[in-house]
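Hmm, what's this shape?
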Amino acid sequence: MDKLSTKELWQLKHNFSSARESSEEHFFRCWNHQDCKVCLAENECSWCPMTSACVPNSYAIPLLAPAYDENICPHWAERWELRTKPLGCQVSTITSLTSIISIVSTFIVVLLVALIVLGVRWGRRRSKQDPDWWRVWKRDWSRVQFWQRPQGQDGERDPLLGQAQSTRDGT
């Protein structure tokens, strides 16, 4: 079998993979359909239910097309009612997003409640060991040192404004 040249390989590849239709052809291919199931069976098409229109939707995530293009449907008010291929004719974009946000919010609330419960349990255990650990106003804060001075240094005798050690001792 003869080997194909690079030019021939390029031509074959581009004849099959990049022979894309124009946006007008894509529009008419989708717009032809008058039924939701038939529309969603077509590649890169979505259904607008109020106007019964099959519209082109070539976004990477078809469900989020209304966020990118407010004119995805013929009537502006129905853009969030868009039906897309992965979820079918019974589930709109707004229903899907509401469900996803509700589930994620529930997980976050459960996580926060679990962290609060763990914090309360930790506080109770700590209170059994040291009952006054949380009463900061009863502590003697004059004894607390937030930073340690090196031994043998007195802050009152430190040189000012970069004076050398010899001038401070008078030598």
Notes: The chain has six helices and two strands. The radius of gyration is 35 Å. Helices lie at 6-16, 23-31, 36-41, 65-68, 93-129, 165-168.
